[in-house]
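The freezer alarm interrupted the setup, so I double-checked each line after restarting. Inputs confirmed:
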Amino acid sequence: MKNVMIPKPHEITHVIKHTKAEYTFRVACDDETKHGQFYMLSIPKIGEAPISVSGKGDGYLEFTIRKVGRLTEGVFGLDVGDTIFMRGPYGNSFPVEDFENKHLVVITGGTGMAPVKTMLDYFSENQDKIKSLHLISGFRDLDCVLFTDEIDKYKCDFNVICSLDNMEAPGFHKGLVTEHIKKIHFDTFDEYSVVVVGPPLMMHFTTKELLANGVDESRIWVSIERKMHCAVGKCGHCKINDTYVCLEGPIFNYTDAKDLID
Amino acid sequence: MDMRSDILNLMKNRGDLYRFLSKVYIKEMDPAFLDSMKAMSFPNISLESDLEEGFKELKEYLDNMSKDAVDDLAADYAKTFLSAGISNGSAAFPYESVYTSKDRLVMQEAWADVREIYASYGLSKGNVNSDVLEDHIALELEFMALLCKKSAEDIDEIKLLRSQSDFLDNHLLNWVPDFCKDVEEYAETKFYKAIAKITKGFLKLDRQILDKVIDIVIEKNGSRCYSLSTDRMDQILKQLKKNYRVYAPKRFEKRGPKGDSDLVRYAEIDSVKDIVLDVQSDFSPKEIYYPISQTMIYFENSHSSESILKEEKDIIIFARPCDINGIESLDKIFLENGGYADIYYKRLRDKVKFFMIECKEGFEDCFCVSMGSNKTDNYSVAVRLGEDNILVEVKDVEFFSLFRDEKSADFTPMFVESNKKVVKLPKIESDEDLKKAYGLEFWKNYDEKCIGCGGCCTVCGTCSCFDTVDVIYSDTSTDGERKRVWSSCMLDTFTLTAGGKRFRETNGENMRFRTLHKVYDFKKRFGTDRHMCVGCGRCDMRCPQDISFSDTINTFSEEMEL
Ligand SMILES: Cc1cc2nc3c(=O)[nH]c(=O)nc-3n(C[C@H](O)[C@H](O)[C@H](O)COP(=O)(O)OP(=O)(O)OC[C@H]3O[C@@H](n4cnc5c(N)ncnc54)[C@H](O)[C@@H]3O)c2cc1C
Ligand code: SF4
Ligand code: SF4
Ligand code: FES
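Predicted 3D structure, all chains:
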């Protein structure tokens, strides 16, 4: 019988330092993953934590990690050539086939960009598969901006609105992401979907604003985070109602997500 | 003919065929054996096509045998099984190890394994007086013949039948079909080709026969009831303890959670007199199969390995119906949820057998009847424990032989039919109902009253949540482990994520979550007819704030109806 809790060692091949507290780690790995899935990353004797796949390519996966606690701090101590332990991929994925040949609006807050990034890369490389893509990405201030190179590229491919919450800077809008939603002309789209990923409060106000702008609930998709200690439906930490976020999530249609009451 | 002699006959016939085949494979045919074969009448079986054809072809061969048959067969034997005279050495080498090891070598794992099995029956190669290795086909077939003979002596001994089907599964059927294919390819005489077909067909058929016989014997024996003295039961317990760890609720004086009362918890017992009957145990039996803290992975330098279960014995638990039903919840979560089975749970759970303690009255805080968990038939043995007399009902064939000599008795275990505490479950039939349930002001009563100690989940036999924690043995050590330890949704850290966000912020919300999980979510998710609470009353006994879960459910239900 397979032991699902045993992680496998993988070599770190690149470390990209975005900000002081946010690094992307590229890891040698041949797994097939779907957009929005996550892994349990761990360092023996330190701990384990769920982290989304933020990039993928031939023979590697990337994880963009924010340093907040025990495990993430441990990971920040690792360098190229070091080993990180992983098990996964876990969770469901964005319904990309559903998004194809329609208009897509992606709204992210901070590291919320990580779980949608492989999908953005996919549409950036396959622009014929999407009618139009609008990306609203919010960051607290200039020091918090992630994926600058990627965003520059997206700017050529999509309609990108990059915003800083409380700071003016060249190339950036100012204000919370919610303030830019009205710039998207939903009424001109025949068919479209909206993806929202970010911190809980950001997601709360963003979906509220979307609904106020006439977006139907069923068009909105969110990726949510909960505490996770197993990712395989055993530890109970991620349970909301009769739903296990690690199993049925982390991606939910808003019609379901709105009924998830912790 | 009655069933008994039917089975006896069957065992004898199976044994004869195994012995016959063994004799054919062990060495070249001698003239006497060949002659006696001619006189044999072979069954006309149409149950298995290989077997039927094999017999037909063998008969044809024997009927048309030439004068030189003995010499022809000897040459064919040497070529087919010993690879004599063949340059590339391709032959049907009659050793299991050759067929199951990577490099086709003799004396590998399979060989060591069968030696061990023979030894457990007190057998060694000396018994057959031959110079072939133990995993030679002839010896494996001879071993089966021997087990058939033993079974004929005691047809109720299910263990013997099971060891036959196990030996077929783990050994003979693992390689002999391939071996027979090779024989059919390499042998030149029709004789060995036919023997190969017979062997292949017979093993396959015999495996099916064994399943049937096991079913019949189990059914025939049904359950058996006996009356025995406490002393006699203790003797049986001693027997059991050779192969099992036996647990029951046991009293630990002055170690109780409240003041200097006694603590009753599950522990190994030496006598049935140790079993506490007058109060509900403070803890459920779950710590036996789901330990409070359990190592999952060991880390040594950069190497990681799955923790090993040192326990070799199986486990018997004396438990009441509520707790036996309670294990179903853990099974759902650990074995089914998400399609992942948890190895750490499974490896202990698979060992567990229940001896049900008959429970007719229940205790002060029990509400098992309301939860529909007062009855069960999921036990190996049921016991009514009297002062100095014990009644048992034995359902599991595994234990038949142990009680066989006791005095027969009439005994049908009884169950609690009503509790003092009656619980009314909430009516939640629509999304609106559920929203209402979430929104009830009443949960706020627990914000202050509950102190979030998590004790209620600790004592509960259906609560399954845990935390994983990594530990390092000492500051300077390179070794450590990843463990899991019981957790509780009533702790304020349960939903706490890095950065201080708590998804449920108050004890009242936690109480709402726990209650709904226990009496709504779980049942909805798994579509079972049982809730995640069996009404054992332990959480009420445990709560330092005198919060009663049965009262909570009742008030919740009333609020829902307002
Ligand atoms: C599906 C999913 C995807 C995620 N993707 C990313 C990502 O791409 N990048 C990123 O930086 N972060 C991501 N997170 C959040 C990340 O898991 C937490 O920041 C991380 O667990 C913190 O662990 P720690 O040991 O450093 O912190 P500590 O506070 O020391 O954590 C202790 C334990 O609590 C648990 N825990 C604490 N916070 C969280 C949390 N927010 N979510 C889940 N478990 C938590 C962890 O199991 C951890 O072992 C994701 C979370 C989820 C649920
Ligand atoms: S919730 Fe309380 S009454 Fe129900 S099974 Fe658990 S401990 Fe027993
Ligand atoms: S209900 Fe009682 S036992 Fe449970 S957490 Fe609250 S105070 Fe502790
Ligand atoms: S993370 Fe353990 S149950 Fe979902």
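Quick read of the result. The mean pLDDT of chain A is 94.
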